[in-house]
Amino acid sequence: MESKSKVQLFFLTLFLSTLTLHAETLATYIVQLHPHAKTKSFFTSKLQWHLSFLQQTISSDEDPSSRLLYSYHSAMEGFAAQLTESELQHLKNLPDVISIRPDKMLQIQTTYSYKFLGLNPARENGWYQSGFGHGTIIGVLDTGVWPESPSFNDHGMPPVPKKWKGICQAGKFFNSSTCNRKLIGARYFTKGHLAVSPLRIPEYLSPRDSSGHGTHTSSTAGGVAVPEAGVFGYGAGVARGMAPGAHIAVYKVCWYNGCYNSDIMAAMDVAIRDGVDILSLSLGGFPVPLYDDSIAIGSFRAMEHGISVVCAAGNNGPVAMSVANEAPWIATVGASTLDRKFPALVHMGNGKTLYGESMYPMGSHHLIRNGKEIELVYVTDVDTESQFCLKGSLPRDKVKGKMVVCDRGVNGRAEKGQVVKEAGGVAMILANTEINMEEDSVDVHVLPATLVGFDESVTLKDYINSTVRPLGRIEFGGTVIGRGVRAPAVARFSSRGPSFQNPSILKPDVIAPGVNIIAAWPQNLGPTGLPEDSRRVNFSVMSGTSMACPHVSGIAALIHSAHPKWSPAAIKSAIMTTAVETDHTGRPILDEDKPAGVFDMGAGHVNPDRALSPGLVYDIRPHEYVIHLCSLGYTRSEIFSITHRNVSCYDIMKMNRGFSLNYPSFSVIFKGRMRRKMFTRRLTNVGNPHSIYSVEVLAPEGVKVIVKPKRLVFEQVNQSLSYRVYFLSRKRDKKVGDFMNSAQGHLTWVQSQNGSYRVRSPIAVTWKISKEH
User: Fold this and answer.
1) Count of domains for the chain
2) Which of 197, 616, 659, 684 qualifies as a FRET site for 148, CA 20 to 30 Å off?
């Protein structure tokens, strides 16, 4: 009996220790390793080397490979794995481990926009200069793709470039033969997402797109011409991407819950090896330090391989310092408006009319055809959820047969319409709250609906409260282009600078169309797994910096096709220095009711035609970014995490006194009693030989700007010349209330012979005042 008790005690102890192990929660971490570690040579492959760290860390008999999610080689040296807290602490102390970061989730942030940007297939312009982007490969990291969309038809496309090493990965309702000469590759990455939560129906475990976001962005960047495109008759015309001749490779990293850094890093890791030329990432979050930013780290590797990385600035505007994807080697894109509107007016029973916008199918509902007024209701006496029309919040007895007013916010705009319809409502008015002001992102709704601005919503609610039986009707006005609309303007939601992590670099870099963009959209799948109607052309409308990003990705593809030897920095410089700061009326681009500033729009609004022939470019070599990081005060280990370069900043800064990054814009920061700043810049001639450029300066208020020399004489193409800029802060009253916090201007190099080239750099000046001032 005694020996039996000992055996039972042994198994009980073993059982409890197992429970203790699994009681520790597993979490996903991205582990960065030293790329030049000597221990690598002891293993037959990098994968085995990566697994060896887990073998030393995991104390149970569990197979280490069961914890490994990804093994990274190109975007970063390291791996993603699931670890307990105690294992994490042990792994941190192993040799050759540089850093360990918890996996984080990021969020995903056309028939007319190419015309708005001046790209016209009927005349000689940027499309012809670049061959429509032929030969360039755009890699899109997003929610996948709907390959049957006519935007990805490969008729007339050239063969797949020989450098392409990617695959067409099979999965649910997606065959390896689905790709073609337009959509040349497709992959999906799930391990980071599945480690946290399961996939939800109707998500596809394949590169197929169930949300539409990835199909929309991919077709915006490089979709081919599709006639008769539009949304329920709105915005009808020929849809084209920015680079209709470019090839597209899709990397599905975003799922129902969002996009995890481990999956994003895995996609960037593979895309670099696959051979893409452009990486387009319409995703991001809030500003984080560069050494803790997986996109910044992966994009540094991509940049070193000659790949241009274009990212969305984020949708957290108009809050200052909200811009994401701040790394100077990334092109960061904010959103602008078009001069195209979709009016849907609200005629109230008191005879007044409110302006709204919508894309509900005109004439498809009897309430619209008959022009009948119906009762308006704004449910405020139940709870705040009713005001926002959250699911299950609307009492059927209060809304049945009525036009329901829903405050914007909390849940999706289109979702509110579904809630109203399920509760028995027959129409909806979306009312902007103060946070959205007059911003007008339209949607495709399941019932007659329109969106009104904040001022209109106040008028509407006043009317509802003033009468016992308020009435209204919606009049849909179709598509209106121009008609006195000033555009482009900065979208209210577009994230703003200055850069939180790196204010010495002006971000965002540029703005591009991102409001009410029409592009390709998924269809419904039938029981066989094929589209229900292959003849149906699906397009939809979306707004966000997610939509602005692929516009610039496509423009970068055009420049790469025209100038295949240009570096990512040269391509970005071309886009920035040719951007415009005026709208189509010739007046300053607006941010709501005031002129937009450099922290709102960066260098300005993209101009594809001019970007293809910029005259001069500010080029940046990879090692110069390292010097820049040193100048910011980053530690050796932080710089190593980003660049994989082991450097002594003391020695670097000693050799590069007065260094400033050769960026196409200027961000000048005066601290305390500082009154003088000097910047050096280097311009490379990519225009005509024997060119002379003279400088023009609009000095920021309160600053004197001196440029030496004032003329640059280039004898040949690809010649580089440097100049210096001195910024002198004029003496001012030291009282905080009287002291200017920021000012802006610009510096432009103009070709003296005929002025055909104008190379413009925005200037932002900020004064940081110490407390005693």
Assistant:
1) 4
2) 197
